[in-house]
């Protein structure tokens, strides 16, 4: 089966991605004054330093360190297991889902009583975990699994609604759900044989 149209559009971007990000060859990449930067967290920290009128990270050193810590937790214990669940089957998939759910439980406790992770404004950690609001439901559908339960995680559910409907997030910036489903179905088929032997949960 050939690549779906969204995948073909994605692949067509790869030569430019490899040109500006030769190590990973993928997006996101920020080019500022001709200088490329890759990796979401690094890009966000750079933006925080350059455009200081709208800070993304807290000014307090301890709170900044905490934001970075939780960003690492989200990446290692939620983003990766959530994606791996799309590319695994059986017991391995179940264990990946369990890791992701356990991480959501910790995030739920941290988020209680807050509109966003940093308070009343979208900040660094909101943007790091933003995939939960839009991409994670697509992964769940593609993998036929359930990771996020709004009844179990009401604080995250409220945050998701606030985040996805914020003026700086919603609109034409997000790809269509249909395109994402088609793309990730293709990626799952491509990666499942490799992940079955290389990933251990």
TrEMBL record:
Protein name, UniProt field: glutathione transferase
- Pfam families according to UniProt: GST_C (PF00043), GST_N (PF02798)
Keyword Transferase assigned: yes
Q: Which UniProt keywords apply?
A: Transferase
Q: What family does this belong to?
A: Belongs to the GST superfamily.
The organism named in the record is Rehmannia glutinosa (Chinese foxglove)
User: Per the UniProt record, which EC number(s) apply here?
Assistant: 2.5.1.18
**Reaction catalysed by this enzyme:** RX + glutathione = an S-substituted glutathione + a halide anion + H(+)
Kind of enzyme, top EC level? transferase
InterPro entries from the entry? Answer: Glutathione-S-Trfase_C-like, Glutathione-S-Trfase_C_sf, Glutathione_S-Trfase, Glutathione_S-Trfase_N, GST_C, GST_C_Tau, Omega/Tau-like, Thioredoxin-like_sf
* Positions of the GST N-terminal domain: 1-55
Q: Where are the transmembrane segments?
A: none
Positions of the GST C-terminal domain: 60-184
């Amino acid at each position: 089966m050939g690549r779906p149209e969204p995948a073909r559009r994605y692949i067509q971007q790869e030569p430019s991605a490899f040109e500006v990000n030769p190590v990973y060859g993928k997006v996101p990449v920020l080019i500022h004054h001709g200088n490329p930067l890759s990796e979401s967290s690094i890009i966000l920290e750079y933006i925080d330093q350059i455009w200081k009128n709208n800070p993304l990270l807290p000014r307090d050193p301890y709170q900044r360190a905490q934001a970075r810590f939780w960003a690492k937790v989200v990446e290692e214990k939620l983003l990766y297991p959530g994606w791996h669940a799309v590319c695994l089957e059986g017991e391995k998939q179940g264990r990946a889902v369990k890791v992701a759910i356990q991480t959501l439980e910790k995030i739920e406790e941290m988020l209680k009583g807050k509109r966003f992770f940093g308070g009343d404004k979208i900040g660094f950690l909101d943007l790091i975990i933003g995939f939960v609001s839009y991409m994670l439901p697509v992964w769940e559908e593609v993998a036929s699994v359930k990771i996020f339960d709004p009844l179990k995680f009401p604080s995250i559910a409220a945050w998701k609604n606030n985040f996805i409907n914020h003026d700086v997030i919603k609109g034409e910036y997000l790809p269509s759900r249909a395109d994402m489903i088609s793309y990730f179905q293709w990626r799952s088929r491509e990666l499942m044989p490799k992940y079955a032997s290389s990933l251990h949960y």
